[in-house]
Specification:
Blueprint: H1 4-7, E1 17-23, E2 28-33, E3 39-42, E4 48-50, H2 52-58
Length: 64
Amino acid sequence: MLCIDCQTGYHAPYDRFERLAANPHAPSFLMRCRLCAALWNENSGVPELLTRTHARWLYPAARI
């Protein structure tokens, strides 16, 4: 279940996120909300809410 902040998107306060991994082939990072454990793909475009399956595919070395 997403927290209220994640329900409205990836936005400040950003200190609620922790970086789990970086994609060496693209400028993107796997971020996890400290409140609800939602996974986000932070990149140069619009951050994307990820399923665990999609996150494992994008970041195979990450501990999710």
